[in-house]
Amino acid sequence: MATKVDFYAVLEVERTATAEELKKAYRKQAMRYHPDRNPGDETAEHKFKEINEAYDILKDEQKRAAYDRFGHAAFENGGMGGGGGFGGFGGGGLDDIFEMFGDMMGGRRGGRRRTGNDVQVQVEITLSEAYSGIKKPVEIRTRIACESCHGTGSADSNAGDTTCPTCHGAGAVRAQQGFFLVERPCPTCHGSGKVVKNPCKSCRGSGTTEQTRTLEIAIPPGVEDGTRIRLTGEGEAGGNGVQPGDLYVHVSVGGSDIFQRDGANIYCRVPLRMTQAALGTEIEVPVIDGTRTRVKIPAGTQTGENFRLRGKGFSVLRSSARGDMYIQVAVETPHHLSPRQKELLEEFEAEAGETQDQEKANPEHTGFFAKVRDFFEGK
Ligand SMILES: [Zn+2]
Ligand SMILES: [Zn+2]
After folding, report:
1. Is residue 144 exposed (0-12), middle (13-18) or buried (19+ Cβ within 10 Å)?
2. What is residue 327's predicted lDDT score, i.e. its pLDDT?
3. What are the distances in angstroms from CA 117 to CA 245, 248, 287?
4. Whose atoms come closest to the Cα of 184: which ligand?
5. 133 CA to middle of ligand 1, Å?
6. What is the full DSSP assignment across 70-121?
7. What is the whole-number distance in angstroms between the Cα of residue 49 and the centre of ligand 1?
8. Binning pLDDT at 50, 70 and 90, where does residue 355 land?
9. pLDDT of residue 83
10. Percent with pLDDT over 90 in the chain
11. I need a surface site. Which of 131, 180, 188, 320 has the fewest CB within 10 A?
12. Is the pLDDT of residue 285 over 70?
């Protein structure tokens, strides 16, 4: 077996590329090396195969994780099996490229794959659910295999099928789109290539009926806003023994007044009293896991200073790493002083003026007015 090129290098993406970036990179490369655009060019053909093979693995989260850990070995003999189509154009690769071109052109997925429609659902979770991960039930209204005819579409299992008159059994019809010949699922048989002789009454021969299903979606800890989770085969049933489509769960993660998230890191702005910041103190701060922890604030802490709490952030997807939490201090000047407080602060100010080394006590303040002086005196 020839040495294989790194899948990420084939697609010209970083190892950290998101699913969206991978898809973009794949489209770009596949367009460039597509055999229709490079007739008779063997190098392009080889490259096109490599691109499809790479994308076939990397687009699948599980396969990608296996590849990240074990490299190509994960998919060789005895590995988890990367699909049989690697050798030639007959495999998953070409179907996918048809699918891509299909949705690039605003159409439905290509005919060769013969699956039901994909279903998209939106799931909203809170920031703390994103932290811990959660199982969320989602309701999806989709077509499922008809119960009366078990998805065959036939009222009489002995009546059998007959070849579809529209596509002559191919399951797909072809149409010219720019310089590509694009395949679409046959509108008569929806991709199965067959029509039933004696249609089922419940589903009128389609093999599917519409139903609401509830699925429990496992959302992994550390999920970010906008993440898309694919559940293979949980989409719409295709009918007539055609494979079901996939379910895509789009996760949107809510915000918080207390915590701001930046990737795996969390920021929490904590207001301190002026005296706490000046004298130093220990404060209790909330942690995203629902607990609290104590943080030492040294004397002389300024607004904007950060205190890092290691490992108190989100987990990083596909890794055992964890982000950190940052306490961002904001010093609050007191309002509505009592007469006694006012007196004390006036005394404090007088004391500062008389005895303290101002450059040490308030270096920024002193420095600033020194700069102002220099500016106007033209130094
Ligand atoms: Zn047909
Ligand atoms: Zn039926």
Report:
1. buried
2. 96
3. 5, 11, 42
4. 1
5. 44
6. HGGGGGSTTSS---GGGGSTTSHHHHHHHHHHHHHTT----STT-B---EEE
7. 29
8. low
9. 35
10. 32
11. 320
12. yes
End-to-end CA distance of the chain: 74
Ligand 2 centroid to Cα of residue 195, in Å, is: 13
Residue 294 has pLDDT above 50, yes or no: yes
- CA 197 to ligand 1 center in whole angstroms: 14
Helix axes 92-104, 19-33, angle to 10 degrees: 100
Spacing, Cα 185 to ligand 1 middle (Å): 8
| CA 106 – CA 109 distance, rounded (Å) | 9
- Which residue bears the tokens 């072809």? 174
**Ligand 2: distance of its center to the CA of 172 in Å?**
22
The pLDDT value recorded for residue 333 is 94
Q: List the structure tokens of 56.
A: 């076939």
Mean pLDDT, rounded, for 207-223: 88
- Ligand 2 center to residue 142 CA distance, Å? 15
- The pTM score is 0.54
109 CA → ligand 1 middle, Å:
15
Each residue's pLDDT tens digit, 21-56: 898 888 888 888 887 778 788 888 888 888 888 888
* Strand pairing report for 161-163 and 265-273: unpaired
Nearest ligand, CA 170: 1
